[in-house]
UniProtKB/TrEMBL annotation:
SMART domains: GGDEF. This is diguanylate cyclase. Keywords: Membrane, Transmembrane, Transmembrane helix. It is an enzyme of class 2 (transferase). InterPro entries: Diguanylate_Cyclase, GGDEF_dom, Nucleotide_cyclase, Rev_trsase/Diguanyl_cyclase. Its EC number is 2.7.7.65.
Length: 395
């Protein structure tokens, strides 16, 4: 978080620097329009464009850094030297205004095209759409600069000599300022949205396994319950608990315990259907919420999870502090299953009933599922094979 805030500060300070140089460029341009200038007006305009280009290129560099793209350290230096050198040579050699203007416009066009490319949105989410908006705003400026360049290219010499008085300047300057303000504001909005999403993820995701934490789970359960109840579809819930996990910690250490937890969370997640939600309910307990799932389907999914954990040993080959012979650990889980068909839609009642069924599964010997299905089918609970030992080691 602290390093993220520091990065953001660095980025924003970079943008501020770019905008200040850009503003200096505009100030020089406005000064060139007064009678206070000494010497030819074109020198001031060339200096103004150089400063504007320099400020913009710093801004574009900042945008690239923000997007995580490669930043060319000497890019801003290259822009300023190219422009200064071209302008100095052309002014000293009294080369036609047309070439002076065209070269300046070309550099500005290049910067906007580069910026526009750096702002292309990826994906279809809100942030991607805002990036696309910024991209099109920069592209629009590029297009207008291209039109001005064509106009300069086609204008006759007499008209070019009065270029300083062309009314398009006022429009261009206001347009530049408007677009830059809009793009910077949109980038700040993206920064804010990303920071919010980061905070939301920290608040609702479990740091170790990457699945929802208890709070995220509660929120997901409330949402699922509201929708299921409204459209009168059943919702199922499983609480999956690793058997004899304390012994894994005791025998192999907490580092291995963490690897086992992560791996089991991933294995369970991979076994779920689209729309199912997994969260970490407690230490070595996971909760699975299943929309449109009755008691029978909940049992089917519970059995799939029990089976897949049983047949998928957790590889601990690369874990530090483990001896080379120990390659993998076999685990089993007990599952408490329940659905709104037997317990109704009250979330706390579902959690309590699933917990109660899990307790019964543990009492009955572990590596098995207990549900309320007998209440529906008048049958005894489905049972998996009891585990013979807590965790076997595959050498
Ligand atoms: N490595 C690791 N261990 C954890 C974590 N959270 C909880 N535990 C451990 O999980 C163990 C849970 O032990 P118990 O509640 O006795 O459960 P158990 O040994 O699995 O026994 P049964 O559930 O009855 O089969 C404790 O030793 C906790 O320290 C974690 O994030 N990482």
């Amino acid at each position: 978080m602290i390093s993220g805030a520091y990065q953001q500060r660095r980025l924003i300070m970079g943008w501020v620097r770019g905008l200040l140089i850009f503003a200096c460029g505009l100030a020089v341009y406005f000064f060139s329009q007064t009678s206070l200038i000494i010497g030819p007006q074109s020198i001031y305009i060339a200096a103004a464009v150089t400063l504007v280009a320099q400020g913009l290129s710093q801004l574009v560099n900042g945008i690239r850094m923000f997007r995580g793209y490669r930043v060319y350290r000497y890019w801003t230096l290259l822009v300023i030297t190219t422009l200064l050198a071209c302008n100095a040579v052309m002014l000293n050699m009294h080369i036609s205004n047309r070439w002076l203007l065209l070269s300046n416009l070309a550099v500005l066009l290049w910067i906007f095209a580069y910026g526009s490319r750096s702002l292309v949105g990826h994906g279809k989410d809100f942030v991607a759409n805002i990036f696309w908006l910024c991209c099109s705003l920069f592209a629009m400026v590029g297009l207008i600069l291209a039109i001005v360049a064509v106009k300069v290219g086609l204008a006759d010499q007499a008209s070019l000599d009065g270029f300083g008085d062309w009314s398009i300047h006022a429009y261009l300057v206001s347009f530049f300022m408007l677009i830059i303000t809009a793009v910077v504001s949109l980038l700040l909005l993206i920064m804010h949205v990303k920071a919010q999403a980061g905070l939301q993820a920290i608040a609702t995701l479990d740091g170790l396994t990457g699945v929802l934490n208890r709070r995220g789970l509660q929120e997901a359960a409330s949402r699922m319950q509201a929708v299921s109840q409204r459209i009168q579809l059943p919702m199922g819930m499983l609480i999956v608990d690793l058997d004899y996990f304390k012994k894994v910690n005791d025998v192999y250490g907490h580092l291995v315990g963490d690897v086992v937890l992560k791996s089991c969370a991933e294995t369970i997640r991979a076994a779920l259907r689209g729309g199912d939600v997994i969260g970490r309910y407690g230490g070595e307990e996971f909760c699975i919420l299943m929309p449109n799932t009755g008691e029978q389907e909940a049992m089917v999914l519970a059995e799939r999870i029990r089976r897949i954990i049983e047949v998928t040993p957790v590889s601990i080959a690369g874990v530090e502090s483990m001896s080379r012979e120990t390659q993998a650990i076999k685990c089993t889980v007990s599952v408490g299953a329940v659905s709104s068909e037997t317990m109704g839609y009250v979330i706390d009642a579902l959690f309590a009933a699933a917990d109660q069924n899990l307790y019964r599964a543990k009492q009955n010997g572990r590596n098995r599922i207990v549900s309320n299905i007998e209440q529906l089918l008048d049958k005894s609970p489905v049972k998996g094979k009891p585990a013979k030992r807590h965790a076997s080691v595959i050498a």
